[in-house]
Automatic annotation (TrEMBL):
Residues 23-165 form the Peptidoglycan recognition protein family domain. Residues 32-171 form the N-acetylmuramoyl-L-alanine amidase domain. Belongs to the N-acetylmuramoyl-L-alanine amidase 2 family. GO terms for molecular function: N-acetylmuramoyl-L-alanine amidase activity; peptidoglycan binding; zinc ion binding. One of its GO terms (biological process) is innate immune response. Keywords: Disulfide bond, Immunity, Innate immunity, Signal. Disulfide bonds join C23-C145, C59-C65. Monomer. The keyword Ubl conjugation does not apply. This is Peptidoglycan-recognition protein.
Amino acid sequence: MTSLHLLLFVFVAKIVAAADRDCGVLPITLWSGEKSRRTSMLKTPVQLVVIQHTVSPACYTDQACESILRGIRIHHIVDLDFIDIGTSFLIGGNGRVYEGAGWQRIGAHTRGYNDKSISISFIGNFNNELPTSKALKAAQDLINCGVYNNYLTKDYELVGHRQLSATQSPGDSLQDLIETWPHWKKFD
């Protein structure tokens, strides 16, 4: 295969992946066994992406990630009295993106911003280390797919959770990294 053919193949593969309206996200029904309980709809496209971490153990397999996600969901519903899991999307160290509230439902992730943003939460604690390269790539692919499918505006802004709330999320290491990403915005 020539370099030109390889380049064309990669370009087409990226377009096909971006064209997937679900963006390769594992639906909540598949990892939790039931539909989302959230019914309030998010007006899209939104302009804000909030990056978070779960401060749970990290996970690197589908089975481990899904077990952690079910625990987070139960915590949100039972202990925090949320309707359902609050985060829009969660990403495991395996590079898999899991649906929480998703693209179209209002989540409960950042007080004052839930109805005008989506959140992406990396599973684990990222104060002293970064998510896996697979997880970081999955987040960037998810954002690109969100723009392509008009869930996010082309001029979206990206922030760490700590920039909007009194929290350490998304962790020191991850915050430092996202400040180098395109569309990162400094909030005063």
